[in-house]
Write a structure and sequence with these properties.
The chain is of the alpha+beta class. The chain has helices at about 1-20, 20-30, 40-55, 60-70, 75-95, 105-110, 115-135, 140-160; strands spanning about 165, 170-175, 185, 190-200, 200-210, 210-215, 220, 230.
Length: about 230
Amino acid sequence: MMAATHADTIRQAVRLAREGHPSQGLALLLESPVPAESRDASLYHYTLGWLLAQQDRPGEAFSHLDFAHRHHPGDALIQQAWERTRTELERKQGVGSLDRASTPVEQWVDSPYSTPTQALFAVLALVACAGAARKKQIGRWTLLLWLLAFGASALQFVGSRNPQGRALSTQTLRSGPSEDFLNLGSVEAGSELRIIESKDGWSRVRISPESSGWVPHESVLLLMPPSTTRER
């Protein structure tokens, strides 16, 4: 029932945009957010990104398109909109400006190859262990595969501790979870963020390996499940 309601809202917003009322369609979607776990979430974020791009808001558009792209990387329409908006935003903010927050380990964990690699090592380790049990002897290959499986799991744990997100709008970076704290700079719309912790409606985010601060929680679009975000 709920999924049908979300789909109807998205179709209505698209119809308004095609009838020459994109701002009304955009307002309708913003008033009816779709939960990230919904099966209509990717379509919602793609449509929202498409409408925001039409309203000359590329930073916000890219945040939503990136959500849709990560969940459906093989979709040609989403890929084209994502690349076009990314190119426009990097032309304004500089090449590489959108992806500065993640460490190499986090980049690997975020990639589509991380989970399959971890699963492959785990399966190979189990097969090697079964063979060693039959021979009643643990060989070097068994140990190596177990070390690789353990290492892949450790990387997954370390890399997923700080969920990935993007700034939905340009925000002031604060030294604490309130507007009363010091201004540490600004975060541009569409920029990558790593969520370190959340408190009182604010999130402490890393915007580069050297910089972190607090922004309102509603200004961040989570691209990864929030289950590992620490509440303090």
